Amino acid sequence: MKPWSLTVPLGAVVIWQIVSFSGLVPTNLLPSPLAVLAGARDLIFVGMPPEHLLHNHIIYSLLRVFLGFIFGCIIGIPLGLVMGWSSKAKGVLGPFVEIIRPIPPLAWIPIAILWFGIGLKSAAFIIFLGVFFPVLLNTISGVESINPVLLEAAKTLRAGERDLFLKVLLPGAIPSIFVGMRIGMGIGWMTLVAAEFTGVKEGYGLGYMIMTARDIQRPDEILAGMLIIGVIGLMINWSLKALESRLIRWQ
Amino acid sequence: MKPWSLTVPLGAVVIWQIVSFSGLVPTNLLPSPLAVLAGARDLIFVGMPPEHLLHNHIIYSLLRVFLGFIFGCIIGIPLGLVMGWSSKAKGVLGPFVEIIRPIPPLAWIPIAILWFGIGLKSAAFIIFLGVFFPVLLNTISGVESINPVLLEAAKTLRAGERDLFLKVLLPGAIPSIFVGMRIGMGIGWMTLVAAEFTGVKEGYGLGYMIMTARDIQRPDEILAGMLIIGVIGLMINWSLKALESRLIRWQ
Amino acid sequence: HTAFADQKPIRIGYLQNDIHQLACWVAIEKGFYRAEGLDVQVAGIFKAGPEEMSAFAARALDMGYVGEAPATTAVANGVARVSVVAQVNTEGSGLMVGKNSAVHHVKDLVGKIVAVPGHSTVQDFLLKKAFLKSEVDQKSVRIIVLKPPEMIGASGTDQISAFIAWEPYPAKAITMGAGRLLLSSRDIWRDHPCCVLVADDRFIAERPDDVRAMVRVHVRATDYLNADTGEALRIAVKYTGMDDETLRLAMRNVRYTYEISREGELEYVRFLSGLRYINVSDPESFVNRFLQGVFLKEITGR
Amino acid sequence: MDLVLERISKIFPGIGGCESVEVLKDFSCFINGGSLLSIVGPSGCGKTTILRIIAGLEKASSGRVLFGVGEAEPGEKPLVGLVFQDYALFPWRTTLGNITAGLEFMGVPLKERLAKGMEYVSAFGLDGFENRYPKELSGGMKQRVAIARTLIMEPGVVLMDEPFGSLDSQTRNSMQEFLAGLWEERRDTIIFVTHNVDEAVFLSDDIIVLTSRPARVIERVKVLCKRPRDRTGIECNTIRRSVLDILGRESSKLG
Amino acid sequence: MDLVLERISKIFPGIGGCESVEVLKDFSCFINGGSLLSIVGPSGCGKTTILRIIAGLEKASSGRVLFGVGEAEPGEKPLVGLVFQDYALFPWRTTLGNITAGLEFMGVPLKERLAKGMEYVSAFGLDGFENRYPKELSGGMKQRVAIARTLIMEPGVVLMDEPFGSLDSQTRNSMQEFLAGLWEERRDTIIFVTHNVDEAVFLSDDIIVLTSRPARVIERVKVLCKRPRDRTGIECNTIRRSVLDILGRESSKLG
Ligand SMILES: Nc1ncnc2c1ncn2[C@@H]1O[C@H](COP(=O)(O)OP(=O)(O)OP(=O)(O)O)[C@@H](O)[C@H]1O
Ligand SMILES: Nc1ncnc2c1ncn2[C@@H]1O[C@H](COP(=O)(O)OP(=O)(O)OP(=O)(O)O)[C@@H](O)[C@H]1O
Ligand SMILES: [Mg+2]
Ligand SMILES: [Mg+2]
What we know:
The complex is a heteropentamer, with two copies of chain A (251 residues), one copy of chain C (302 residues) and two copies of chain D (255 residues).
Chain A: H1 7-22, H2 33-45, H3 54-85, H4 87-100, H5 105-116, H6 120-144, H7 148-156, H8 161-190, H9 192-195, H10 206-215, H11 219-247
Helix pairs in contact in A: 2-11, 3-4, 3-6, 3-8, 3-10, 5-6, 6-8, 7-8, 8-11, 10-11
Chain C: E1 10-15, H1 22-29, H2 32-35, E2 40-46, H3 49-57, E3 63-67, H4 68-76, E4 82-87, E5 89-91, E6 93-98, E7 113-116, H5 122-133, E8 142-145, H6 148-156, E9 162-166, H7 169-175, E10 179-184, H8 185-188, E11 195-200, H9 201-206, H10 208-227, H11 229-240, H12 244-252, E12 254-256, H13 262-274, H14 283-290, H15 294-300
Parallel strand pairs in C: 1-2, 1-3, 7-8, 7-9
Antiparallel strand pairs in C: 3-11, 4-11, 5-12, 6-9, 6-10
Helix pairs in contact in C: 1-10, 1-11, 3-4, 4-13, 6-7, 7-12, 10-11, 10-15, 11-12
Chain D: E1 3-12, E2 21-31, E3 36-40, H1 47-55, E4 62-67, E5 80-83, H2 95-99, H3 101-106, H4 110-123, H5 139-151, E6 157-161, H6 169-186, E7 190-193, H7 197-203, E8 206-210, E9 217-222, H8 234-254
Parallel strand pairs in D: 3-7, 3-8, 5-6, 6-7
Antiparallel strand pairs in D: 1-2, 1-4, 8-9
The complex binds adenosine-5'-triphosphate (ATP) (2 copies) and magnesium ion (2 copies).
């Protein structure tokens, strides 16, 4: 990260503060950055709802997102390898995937509760729906972008089907899979609020926290919560990028 | 589309019906396909809420999605061209984009209403948030994947900055932009329910319809509504693909 | 009571931030469940009633505090099999206008936009009743659906002329200086039903003693909060995070009671059937099945 | 290992509106075990197709490929190695990883294949580069890795499809010398496709010159010059001239 | 147009942990207007860098590029055309669209540029292919489009960086003949970089042979053979031999 890469976010914050001071925007609806900072402080020390502190919300949401993410990858990557490899599988499963893909996560809630009950699994399922499709689609396109000569080379070197999958298709698609994982992680976070609509057992979750702040009209805490999700998302994105550049040094 | 591309969806439906008959799954929460069909019939002829017929819901949602989509493209594509072209612009705006990207659409609702009021514009804004990021990120990667030799060739042919943007970067990034547009359209639909949480003035919208069916506890209509969104999404995806293959015959 | 010790815990649910359900929080905070020998587990905190009813349908809950409206539609539409075993509150909603609004009477709403929290909600019904009473043609008012948290902001920016919501939103609008009460729900329909305590029918059949004990706790908690408003307020602040001025105002508008309102439910069922939201051919027998006052009667003797 | 192609035909069916393409028609040819045969011919005449059929990547429409006819045990189909023009290295594997890939696929234990792999690394002048990824290697090195990867499998027949086609001429010359040296030592059976007549003359025992599609053998030229050969010497130049003449006549026939 | 390179140096600064690379050091050279100069030299010696500096795509660290010194009006910097090895055609433009791209960038009206474009389509033997996209063209055709696209701009100097490097040898020969014919007619000032000594001898008025990095001119060879030349004739072969000798000595110096 370059030092000037924070100029624009910081500049935006300063302008926002100035606008808030000037009274051009009603601060009861869009609080100033300083108010948001105070809101973040309240989230950390007072909690929202009270005694439900920020770090626990973060831990629970991370757990849900990661569970959804892992399953999104565990199912999306192998399925993507198969669908990228066999145009028949793609032809058969493709329309199915395309029908399910645009369905809003909120609409899945009743089904999520039916299938997975209240709690972690339901929430993770909603997040899974956000992660799964980008991972799947990028894995497919990753496999399709592999130079077919590599497959032939592997075949003349006596590679069996398993070797082809694990030692040619998978590594060849990895760069694209990583792109899908990063997009999927972003969308996973995007579906967090919907996921936590399925009912939280322990009273924790960032989406739940934001929705509670919304219930009691604390825009400062809503905004602080949004930015916290944003920053966590940014950090995870960076970690994935770092992992990516370690894993695919060959590119 | 191949004739067998519908085998899996149809097979899934048949299995689902059989499972429903067998009583293995509680039909009160997951209605059978026939019940969903009846739900769809009710949506078409009775309406949900009653007298609000399906075709109007579709029209209003299409309008919202397209408006959000168009703005997502109008802002995402040029910004993506700039960020792909100048690594400085990318460095400055990148973290900003990455922070905003994972914020759940539902969390934006208060701000959307503040900025855009209740109605079309707010809803379109929420959808815009779903469309914008995939379009932006794919445009950036599209520009970055352009062979730099093409830019040098254009320069030696006396291309000015404007020509470089409009006649080299834009067409060169088009394939990738289309991928972004298709992903963005999918996510736009995914955010539809959240978008229509910002309040629909006319009483129409597919997300609103589904949420009303949820309020009234009609899982058959919820599922019918989900599938309708899915099929519309599929059809739009096909149209975009058709447009794509016409526009980039050169690939 | 220790006989239940080896039984599975009772899974309950409630709605976050709905002060109508204060009795539940009082019972938890004051240890009334434990005192009754009940092993109660909060299995789900929900943002809205329909999700809680989905949880009942998925057999993830045994008992729950929930709005009478979602419970009724869920049962009438065959989604869940639950019965009302006690009332939780009546009244407790308010029809609000902007602080400086020129609207001083329901009649003034003609041609304006009014927000309700959802179709088939009690508030939806209350608004229509208010129109009926004031002889306002429903079609002359534009009713839109908006979630209560957004209502205050929207009425502050003149997006809507009025809204009807459950407490604490009306009170919050007042303390924020954004709104004024046009009509409380008491003015529209005295003692109208609102939230209820429901139990899964199979749970009632299998563990009637637990249901009875739960109702006993509920009665105790309701009596407690009506008696000691100060402590109840403290608990409300803790569970919602809202300021106590707002909550004090809000609680004044809610009637906490366990007496089941049969007439109210009957009227409500007729209303929903009339709008074709549900399809109940014989409201009387539906209500007789849906309301199971036996446990309450055993405890209160009424 | 001897190899005989017996009346091989190959027709690619036309897809969509396209006409079907007859690439090979009753094509017959043989190669003696342990010799190096070059194939030259006009672009698109079917050279790659021939190799792909031998390697089993493409099925012939009719005809047979016979391995080891002259040998005691004709037995099963031997391993056929294939070296591609664009190297076809696995970009995610290091030099050593690429060289040992085939052994890995065959299930050779790790230690054994690393030992054998390092032998080949040395033999192919790749010492010090065993842990580099393909993108870090020059074109000549990449092709040496590709050849090592194929030869380490001890294939019965090695097919090379314009292996030096994308190298610059200096590198190309040194790779030709490298291959010639290697071959003289190992005596693999090699079929070598090239566009470059100099190269064919420098390397081969036999050169077959093909017509354009459907490919037929116009002439089979024996290159009897002593090895190591002098690229610009008279012997070689004479053969070069005659092959170029045949090719020239063939292309002038085309138009 | 005459062109003089005056004591040009170019150092690429090392990024990260890399050392900086001195590619050119006081490199001087000239070309007479209307002549065809070839540059040959070891891989990586800096040939492409020289062309890029002349084209203005890279700035020299020091030294000057002077255009049209001998002319009446030295004036402003003329248009410098550049032809790339990999064609660098715009894949989204048809043949005609590619050929007229530069005219379009310069603002020439549609009708005029289409007319001129069609002239070039014919002159370059591309009739019937004017509406095809690059992917539908063969390598030779693509390179003809690339050359047409450059020459239609009437550049003062044309730079060609291994333009025929990725063509097979038959196509390459015919493209050399095509270029020779074209040049004899138009007499553009051309600097032609190649690895192929035959090609340099066949095409050029002068050949400069470079050392490895930092590039220096070892020798400037005049090719005086009459045109059209005989590729395998004695005259050409003598020059070919001497250039190859110089190059050979240079590479053996490297080790
Ligand atoms: N899979 C295929 N489907 C249809 N036609 C094919 C296919 N593969 C090759 N061809 C056609 O077969 C002909 C011979 O192709 P092949 O690649 O064998 O030629 P080649 O001699 O190797 O050419 P080159 O010298 O250019 O490599 C070509 O005309 C090609 O278009
Ligand atoms: N942008 C750059 N940054 C650093 N080093 C560079 C850069 N461009 C070229 N070089 C180095 O400069 C040297 C000369 O490169 P150049 O491409 O001019 O050689 P060349 O003679 O054209 O080689 P070839 O025959 O392989 O095309 C090379 O060693 C190369 O690594
Ligand atoms: Mg070939
Ligand atoms: Mg170069």
